[in-house]
Amino acid sequence: MAQPQQSEGAEPEKPPLRVGMVGYAFMGAAHSQGWRTVGRVFDLPRRPVLAAICGRDGAAVRAAADRHGWAAAETDWRALIARDDVDLVDICTPGDSHAEIAVAALAAGKHVLCEKPLANSVEEAEDMVRAAETAQERGQLAMVGFNYRRVPATALARRMVAEGRIGRLRHVRVTYLQDWLVDPQFPLTWRLRREHAGSGSLGDLGAHIVDLAQYVAGEQLAGVSALTETFVRERPLPGGAVQGLSAVSADGGTGRVTVDDAALFTARFPSGAIASFEATRYATGRKNALRLELNGENGSLAFDLERLNELSYHDGTEPGAHAGFRRILVTEPDHPYLDAWWPPGHGLGYEHTFVHQARDLVHAIHEGRQPEPSFADGLQVQRVLAAVEESAEKNSVYTPIAV
Amino acid sequence: MAQPQQSEGAEPEKPPLRVGMVGYAFMGAAHSQGWRTVGRVFDLPRRPVLAAICGRDGAAVRAAADRHGWAAAETDWRALIARDDVDLVDICTPGDSHAEIAVAALAAGKHVLCEKPLANSVEEAEDMVRAAETAQERGQLAMVGFNYRRVPATALARRMVAEGRIGRLRHVRVTYLQDWLVDPQFPLTWRLRREHAGSGSLGDLGAHIVDLAQYVAGEQLAGVSALTETFVRERPLPGGAVQGLSAVSADGGTGRVTVDDAALFTARFPSGAIASFEATRYATGRKNALRLELNGENGSLAFDLERLNELSYHDGTEPGAHAGFRRILVTEPDHPYLDAWWPPGHGLGYEHTFVHQARDLVHAIHEGRQPEPSFADGLQVQRVLAAVEESAEKNSVYTPIAV
Amino acid sequence: MAQPQQSEGAEPEKPPLRVGMVGYAFMGAAHSQGWRTVGRVFDLPRRPVLAAICGRDGAAVRAAADRHGWAAAETDWRALIARDDVDLVDICTPGDSHAEIAVAALAAGKHVLCEKPLANSVEEAEDMVRAAETAQERGQLAMVGFNYRRVPATALARRMVAEGRIGRLRHVRVTYLQDWLVDPQFPLTWRLRREHAGSGSLGDLGAHIVDLAQYVAGEQLAGVSALTETFVRERPLPGGAVQGLSAVSADGGTGRVTVDDAALFTARFPSGAIASFEATRYATGRKNALRLELNGENGSLAFDLERLNELSYHDGTEPGAHAGFRRILVTEPDHPYLDAWWPPGHGLGYEHTFVHQARDLVHAIHEGRQPEPSFADGLQVQRVLAAVEESAEKNSVYTPIAV
Amino acid sequence: MAQPQQSEGAEPEKPPLRVGMVGYAFMGAAHSQGWRTVGRVFDLPRRPVLAAICGRDGAAVRAAADRHGWAAAETDWRALIARDDVDLVDICTPGDSHAEIAVAALAAGKHVLCEKPLANSVEEAEDMVRAAETAQERGQLAMVGFNYRRVPATALARRMVAEGRIGRLRHVRVTYLQDWLVDPQFPLTWRLRREHAGSGSLGDLGAHIVDLAQYVAGEQLAGVSALTETFVRERPLPGGAVQGLSAVSADGGTGRVTVDDAALFTARFPSGAIASFEATRYATGRKNALRLELNGENGSLAFDLERLNELSYHDGTEPGAHAGFRRILVTEPDHPYLDAWWPPGHGLGYEHTFVHQARDLVHAIHEGRQPEPSFADGLQVQRVLAAVEESAEKNSVYTPIAV
User: Fold this and answer.
1) What sequence ranges are listed for the domain Gfo/Idh/MocA-like oxidoreductase N-terminal (chains A, B, C, D) (predicted)?
2) Which domain holds residue C160?
3) Do both B134 and B156 map to the same domain?
4) Is C401 helix (H, G, I), strand (E, B) or coil?
5) Which of A34, A248, D146, D295 is positioned for an S-S bond with A358, CB 3.0–4.6 A?
């Protein structure tokens, strides 16, 4: 295989940042695209190198390495984190292995990027935060991969809220609607089993919207009142290998769905703003409808991931005769991340969030500062999810978020 | 020139339906337009006559009678319901007087149309239902004015759900977003005082969306978990007369807001579907955003009152390559109410709902059958609102709807 | 009960404006709704009275009078214009009779409102302008019914252009897309015969967009280059009566379509702005898509009749990071015509344009000033249409508009 | 520098396809991203290698090579095409050099990909076609880079038209609206000088929409009637280097704009369908609004590049009550190119068109068949543009396209 530092690096004199990635399914492909592209588009202080990729199936991981451009392949994550030529471990596995890998990687002296949700339980997440704090004293950094903070439109929304453009916050409403479970014959993949996924829509989609809403609002939730539901409780067992969102048709028996299909909750922010959240995989026709709206005393912002190059903004201080929600095409050079890309109107796609995530992480590591969102941020989201589950079990009673 | 029954009536031989209306503000103007127009557009078995209008201020009510075309004016609603030339009493006053007027009008032998919400309390609404049941034995009919059932697009949505087009229901999400209270200096109108309005966004907007969601879904809510908030607790007292949504600037002191500014709740339907509701007057830039979406196993429907001539429909049984939410322009002759109006694409407006409401009521009276929604339907909505308030007071605990 | 002048009039002391209308099909119904409603909603200096309606079929016109609320019915338009109790003649017939009726009505001392297009030829239109000029010396006024100037959103667009908000004009693009001829079996109604309709899409739809574009832009076209097409040249003869846009299925032979199905043209304004126009009845799925966009040096405006309560506005002087096309919901009290209607967000419909047209005409008559658009404006549109036809016949060569 | 064939290739056993690219501005960056990514996402029969990049400024081209991952850099395109390690020459320079480079590259035995427009004149394009035909006999292939055929939504539109889903074509309307010249102080870049750019909006934007409209419609234009305009005839000279769409503020004199600012034309297709086209850089607020609509007897399709993951489709054979333009989110696995990307709803961006273009070209080269669009297709577009200019000079007279 190749001399990765030569072919992948932008300039020879820049120090490399050698990445070792665990997992090569949907997230692995997306992260690979991010690492491969970031140094070609952004000016970076370090040169990302796709050093090694890890997966349990030797043939499959070697094929993935070839496909995605990783210099080496491993079949044991312990071997990966032991490699001298890896500076950063990027964890793209299901949530049940995040804690073990992340803690070990930090112990092995690596920086860590861990996919969301941080863990499958608050306890695991707390372990990870402790490990990250200890590692930080040694100069290692850890970040959780809430990539939707890196959509230019959501980053712009955050900036506008921070600038005070919508004023005192009153309402936040967020949904994350998908529909890939609406067919009762869709098989029982790992995402539908609590032991692997931790929870269902809640951890997969709900974690995203909790993080994103808090990030854009600039404050963390105080408490929630929740309702969850599993519409289809028994599903065919998958007949073969199932990865990511895809699945093969079943041949054989059925198994029990042990996670939620949908989660709804209302919430309060410390500032007095109130919020509603919905995560579901049963919203027929909605493919990736992460929708966020914030209403403040002086304005409003709205975003829809299905139209990710746009941000809606209502300036409430304008004269009523000319006011209205405007569709900002978030492709101008002074929009977040956009100075490195194409001319106005030439939109970006989903995978660019991973390029931007890589960019921000490389800068943080170079500067030795904590990247955002931190493992502590990931833990806090985990606590919100735990409060949601607790409230749902207790007749939706309002449940404060632990701090 | 013609006698009024000739110029106002469609055909001389049709028996009149003589209407007496109480109230002449926003709802009075809208109902007047409905009664004045309905016989000009639809073929009706009876001829609506704008017989008399009633309001406490003599000069104002006479001006309203002239403006809106009512033949006579009264200043005491008791006198109005005592008139021999009134067959139907149309109640357009604030909610605190609904019960008394409606019960008396039914006792006086009149049909009754009562604006929503039916009453300010469950107890009042129960009295009204009892009065309506007794009156019905005498052939009098009573209806509550949830006019948004009469938007052609919502009526079409109801028809499509009833036809089974979206299949088993999974999700309902409804918001009713306005923004006219976002300015803390907006004065304390009657709509912000519990003794007149019963509740705030909940009774005003929430009542609409509870009724509409249940109507389109074809089932009634089982229980709710709710959170309410009053963002601005003290407001300037109005300096002069305040009617409807308008208000003059205050000159003087301030008063306490005694109703909710916003109400959020999640809910369950007996079928297993789950729902979320939000009513607010603080959604900056949203003027009349009653938005309804239903997701079923085979399809979805979505509606937005700010674009009331449209219904979004996703047919989940189509091949994925060509499927998508379609924008049905609800202006075709085979859409509800549309055969009487204009060619395709020539849209209707808000006030047409009152024309359609009048049409449906005239037919029901002529045929001697219960118009929908009945007072019992109005009571059931009241019970949902009561459960919302109860849940909000009890830390959002899930609260079944009384039956 | 009241005398009609009381029930129909807003205030007894106001002088009446007695209307006699010729025609009772689609336009007749729309104008009736306008005259019936205008005095109920707007404060008018005169009280419109629906005095008499005229149509050739005695039974049908009497039914229309009853339906729409006209006090008397005539079967000969000469009798109608001879009536003493008619102050204004409202002409809602097909274009081939406009000139004769309008000239006679003006000669009979009446004010005249004439539906668009003003006439079927430039010559007829010139006769009408001469008659109107003569009549104006006697205090009679004449107006042509380009009702789309009276959509609040288009009136707002005009106001914003006049205020200089979009700056120097560069581009105008307008389409009027319908689809009711897309089926080759749709029968040969009067609108498809040159002798009745003058032209096809061009006179029906093209006249609207020429007038509207010039009105909003604030200048008149200098010349055009055009292409017209008749896609389906032979159609079934209608088997029975055909009115408006509707038609019965044919039983019998076929006949020749003698008008254009579609007309496309580019144009120049004297200011240097350039424009494109398209009128068609073959745009499958487009029901009433009158779309107008203006791009100026400092901003842009866009309108779509299928969403008539909205105006899109881009303020080009804003910082790029927050700029975007905003959707103005044209329902605020300071929007044109809106102070008389409903609260913000409660939209209007197609027919309201006729209410507004009646309002503006009543005021102009009361004040003795020329209402807009005048017959001269109608003639100018006719000259544009003639230039379009001339250019289309001459290989699309650029053809100046006669002045 | 690196051993490019090892690190960039997907599998060692695949034969490489070694690319040499001329130009490194906007198009160079986009093509680089395409070549770098295509083998990571798609299964290709050959392995693209970024062998060498060429530009006149030595330091700049070496920086570009590093940035974009090209193994070598040249400052003379003649040296580039002479390299043994280049199989394919990718021409990303302004139009005035296309013919010379392409003809020489073909003579040197290379495959060629040439950016659009193919050339600055019909004569140059004809030379290129001849060279391509000769080269094809030797097994070399040539393609012109109309990348907008490779948006999944436009490719889907083409497929649906070819499947007969919209039936007999009646209307095509296309615009390509940008606004980067609206400021009269924007400097005189190479794109505004005829000697470099050939034409203005016409060649830059008009070439795209002519090709795209013909591709989706499946037929070539018969003739056009055109109007062009240069709104701002004198502009500041750029004070420094100007690349792509960007420009520095001027310091110094002004120069004459020698190309069109906008071009409007109507057109006829041989099938009888009629079309309208507009290309402009003065549509304030429109950043990249390439909008295409086709109306057929049985349906319609509409696309907007500013929302490139969506295709609007109206199925005219559906019952009217449920018909409407549907928004197909073109992100399903059975949509063109999508099986290699992300799950449904996870949209793509502008640059993906270059990945898809590279994919299609690699397959065509591997299979030894002519890639589409060919140089002959590019010549035909050039002939349309020439007819547009000829018509515009001749008072818009209808001008047939030479064949």
Assistant:
1) 17-138
2) 150-348+375-400
3) no
4) coil
5) A34
How far is residue C387 CA from its own chain's centroid?
20
- For residue C398, give the 3-state DSSP assignment: coil
> Which chain A residue shows the shortest CA-CA distance from B267?
A227
Nearest to B225 among A225, A284, A325 (CB): A225
- One-letter amino acid at A369 equals R
Whether A279 contacts A191, CB under 8 Å: no
Q: What is the pLDDT of residues A382-395, one digit of tens each?
A: 999 999 999 999 99
Q: Distance between CA atoms of D92 and D98, rounded to whole angstroms? A: 8
DSSP 3-state of D90: strand
D354 shares a domain with D262: yes
Encode B184-218 in three state secondary structure.
CCCCCCHHHCHHHHCCCHHHHHHHHHHHHHHHHHC
Angle between helices B26-41 and C26-41 (to 10 degrees): 150
Tell which residue, B253, B64, B262, B292, has the closest CA to residue B169.
B292
Number of domains in chain D: 2
Distances (CA, A) of C391 to A72, A362, B267, C227, D349: 70, 64, 64, 7, 43
Short-list D226, D193, D180, D191, CA closest to D385? D226
Compute how many other C-beta atoms are within 10 angstroms of the C-beta atom of residue D152.
23
CB contact under 8 A, B343 and C7: no
CB-based contact A395:B398 (threshold 8 Å):
yes
| Least trusted range by pLDDT, from B4-13, B250-259, B324-333 | B4-13
| pLDDT for res B403 | 84
Q: Rounded distance, CA B36 to CA C36, Å?
A: 9
Interface size B-C, in CB pairs within 8 Å, comes to 149
Please give the DSSP secondary-structure letter assigned to residue B229: E
Do C170 and D284 lie within an 8 Å CB cutoff?
yes
Closest-CA residue to C146 (of C219, C210, C50): C210
- What proportion of chain D, given as a percentage, has pLDDT over 70? 94
Does residue B106 fall inside a structural domain? yes
For D107-120, write each residue's pLDDT tens digit: 999 999 999 999 99
Going by their DSSP bridges, the two strands C169-177 and C289-296 should be labelled as antiparallel
Q: Return the closest-CA partner of residue C188 out of C118, C122, C249.
A: C249
Note whether C331 and C344 are within 8 A (CB): yes
Cα D101 to Cα B106, C73, D113, D119, D139: the distances in Å are: 92, 81, 11, 11, 19
D368-384 in b/e form (b: 16+ CB < 10 A) is: eebbebbbbbbbbbbbb
Q: Is residue A379 part of a domain?
A: yes
Which residues of chain A have a pLDDT value below 50? Answer: 1-11, 241-250
Contacts of D298 in chain B (CB under 8 A): none
Q: Which residues of chain D have a Cβ shorter than 8 Å from any chain B Cβ? A: 156, 160, 165, 313-315, 320-329, 332, 334-335, 344
What is the spatial order of strands in the sheet that B47-54 belongs to? Answer: B72-74, B47-54, B16-22, B88-91, B111-115, B142-145
Q: Tell me how close the Cα of A197 comes to any Cα of chain D, in angstroms.
A: 18
Q: How far is B42 from chain C (nearest CA, A)?
A: 9
Q: Does the predicted interface ipTM exceed a cut of 0.90?
A: yes
- Spans of chain D below 50 pLDDT: 1-11, 241-250
Instruction: Provide the CATH number for the domain around residue B311.
Output: 3.30.360.10
Residue in D closest to C312 by C-alpha:
D285
Q: Rounded to an integer, what distance in angstroms lies between the CA atom of residue A286 and that of residue B324?
A: 9
Structure tokens at C231: 């896609």
Q: Cα B257 vs. chain centroid, distance in angstroms?
A: 24
Distances in Å between the Cα of A71 and the Cα atoms of A60, C196, C229 are 15, 79, 63
Distance from CA of B43 to the nearest CA of D (A): 22
